[in-house]
Amino acid sequence: MQDVEMLYSAESIRNRIKALTGEILRSHAGDEIVLIGLLNGCFMFISDLARALSATPIRISVDFMKVSSYGDSQQSSGEVRVLQDIHLSIHGRPVLVVDDILDSGHSLSTALRILRTHAPKSLRTCVLLDKSGRRQVEIRPDFTGFEAPNRFVVGYGLDYAEQYRALPYIGALKS
Ligand code: IMP
Ligand code: MG
């Protein structure tokens, strides 16, 4: 794509997910993990992560939640609304929340607040990209794929006005 500058190739994402899977397993006690993906941006990442985790002895369940933050297409407003709640029971179970990118932190912290009310055994977070310099809410992911530059990124699930989600790599929009 001419308007996208590649930052993370499909191969580097694949390799990073393999390593992340090891990190998750090494720090996990117990024989199951419930993955909860935040839609829509998580869809490619969670499918690759779930497949990688499935190659291990851990039992993996997958569910989704959808929160939307108001604002324009590049900026979170801090006002977050729940559009779809989870369907699985997570009471007493170890949960790993999976998201595409952590930016201001509003979406993920809202999702965590809601999930906590279901009393999971543990609640950890895994984000593919972290723009840690842009945080407005104090939150640090337990597992991070890549520390992202302070640019608007697209591809591998991430969109700009619903475009570019299906790209197999992650790039920055050329302005
Ligand atoms: P936050 O609530 O500001 O942390 O925003 C998190 C959500 O905003 C992510 O899950 C994405 O859906 C979206 N987002 C934040 N930064 C980007 C970006 O650079 N590209 C695409 N989507 C983004
Ligand atoms: Mg998202």
Write the layout of secondary structure elements.
Elements: E1 4-8, H1 10-26, E2 32-39, H2 43-54, E3 59-69, E4 80-84, E5 94-102, H3 106-116, E6 122-130, E7 143-147, E8 153-154, E9 170-173
Helix pairs in contact: 1-2
The site of inosinic acid (IMP) has 17 residues, from strand 5, helix 3 and strand 8.
Name its key features:
175 residues; binds inosinic acid; alpha/beta; 3-stranded antiparallel β-sheet; globular; binds magnesium ion
Q: Describe it for me?
A:
Helices cover 23% and strands 33% of the residues. It has helices at residues 10-26, 43-54, 106-116; strands at 4-8, 32-39, 59-69, 80-84, 94-102, 122-130, 143-147, 153-154, 170-173. The strands form two sheets. The protein has a six-stranded mixed beta sheet, with helices on both faces. α2 links the parallel β2 and β3 (59-69). α1 (10-26) packs across α2. 32% of the residues are buried. Bound molecules: inosinic acid and magnesium ion. Magnesium ion is lined by residues 38, 41, 99-100, 107.
Kindly summarize this structure in a few lines.
The protein is an alpha/beta fold.
**Beta strand count:** 9
Helical residue percent band: 10-25%
- Our Rg estimate from Cα atoms comes to 15 Å
Report how far the terminal alpha carbons are from each other: 14 Å
Quickly count the helices.
Answer: 3
Bound molecules: inosinic acid, magnesium ion
Mean pLDDT: 94
Low-confidence stretches: none
Helical/strand content category? alpha/beta
Strand order of the largest sheet: 4-3-2-5-6-7
Residues in β-strands, percent: 25-35%
Shape: globular
Order of helices and strands: EHEHEEEHEEEE
The largest β sheet comes out as: 6 strands, mixed
